[in-house]
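Justification of resources, computational component.

The compute hours requested in this renewal are based largely on the per-chain cost of generating structure records like the one below. Each record pairs the submitted sequence with a full structure-token output. That output is archived, and it is also reused by downstream analysis tasks.
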Amino acid sequence: MSVILYKIDALAYGCRYCYAFSSFTRTRALSLRTFFNLHHHRSVSSISPFRYSIIPNFSFFPNPNLLTRNTHFLKIKGVCSGSSMSKNKEMVESLRRFGVISSNKVAEVMETVDRAFFVPNGAEPYVDSPMAIGYNATISAPHMHATCLQLLEENLQPGMHALDVGSGTGYLTACFALMVGPQGRAIGVEHIPELVSFSLENIKKSAAAPQFEDGSLSVFASDGRQGWPEFGPYDAIHVGAAAPEIPQPLIDQLKPGGRMVIPVGNIFQDLQVVDKNSDGSISVRTETSVRYVPLTSREAQLRDQ
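The structure output for this chain reads:
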């Protein structure tokens, strides 16, 4: 591949890999494939570079206050005119256009659950970036939500049970609820009580409100590392923070045939897909490398504020 002299519109908020690349390209050219190897956001073998935005002389804008979740090469701005829902739909269409979303069901759910209800006041909800939500927590970038929904789609069928660990503002829990339907069960677990209250307020404003009212969607204040066994075993488990290793209680609460998506690691983290086979054995594979906040105790998380 020829040498690239361009910088990438990488939406570098929270990405130390992008930041390092930005500094590196000030002094020398770097091939795009080498950049992908450094960047770690998606496996090199699965990427077509031309699916992403390569813009000559584009400056990076790293934000050191958001050194948290994975980022994407796509920059989506909430600048279209019209209603909040039309902007949300444009965000989803942009993710589809850039190949992040390939599932019609995932697109439908993300169009239905307006992200604007789940971000802090004054934030731009439709930008493909993680956002701080207080208490040393973040809401993931839209492309990470889409990735996790697609990985779990077959385990989020009507009537199934889903667990969202580290549910934050409640966005992904609401998406799970719509996918499993009122005959299923969507559970969010968040160890910051203030975020539990915030997430419930958000859910009540969203398309998932009827399922909160009928009891098929619930959010609890608890240590997510212990899961929520009352409504297990679960067909789908999502973990929104990086564990040093996969917590055994979550493995135990995964139903045979179920799937868990969890970031694992400390400095270097991988988004791992954990499948429980019919005989109870576990298969684990790595989907991509990521950067999430740590899955830790409430006290440790608040101590770092």
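Residues 1-81 have pLDDT under 50 and may be disordered. The first strand starts at residue 3 and ends at 4.
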